Amino acid sequence: MTELLGTRLRHLLELLDADVASAYPALGLADGFRPRFTPVVRVLAADGPASIRDLARSLGVTHSAASQTVAQMVRQDLVVTEAGADARQRIVRLTAKAEALVPALEREWAATVTAVRAFEAELPYPLGRLVEEALAALEHTPLRDRIADALDAESGTPPAAG
After folding, report:
1. What is the pTM of this model?
2. 118, 112 Cβ separation under 8 angstroms
3. Is 90 exceeded by the pLDDT of residue 88?
4. Rounded Cα–Cα distance for residues 98 and 73 (Å)
5. Which of 104, 103, 99 is nearest to 48 (CA)?
6. 67 vs 51: CA distance, rounded Å
7. At a CB cut-off of 8 Å and minimum separation 6, what does 3 contact?
């Protein structure tokens, strides 16, 4: 199944996200609240307003991913953004609507952590550890470099110096 790795990983993430989201109605969370919003709300609730760059760093995602999530959250009136000290910087702040959700999100987060631990106990290797090791390996040698090397090997061209 290596040939379908990206497809299978997306499917796994879709299953995980859908199952987390299925708990939301019982917690009183509105339709449209997405699992990717919870870490943002938790970071902002714990640390206060933050720039998108700092938020991305705290979440371990790219600036682009954080910015896209914040834009979706603005549309749902969960966060507001305002200019920072530097006009290019946007500061993200929770709205009262999002602050009211924090207790329910903390319950969901704790239950999800418990469920993930049980899930990982069924696996031969903890998924969280595998993901961290995969990210570290890709940071060391990005997949694009590995693809270029494979293409070079196929064509007989020596790999690019790097």
Report:
1. 0.83
2. no
3. no
4. 9
5. 99
6. 10
7. none
Q: Tell me the mean pLDDT in the region 90-111.
A: 95
Give residue 96's pLDDT: 97
What tokens were used for 142? Answer: 């990005």
Find the helix packing angle between 63-75 and 52-59, rounded to 10°: 110
Tokens 């709205």, residue located: 95
Helix 37-47 to helix 63-75 angle (10° resolution) is 90
**How many residues are present in the chain?**
162
**Could you report the per-residue pLDDT of 108-142, keeping only the tens digit for each?**
999 999 999 999 999 999 999 999 999 999 999 99
Rounded-to-10 torsion of CA 140, 135, 7, 18 = -170
Extract the tokens encoding 43. Answer: 């970071």
CA dist., res. 137 & res. 135, Å (int) = 5
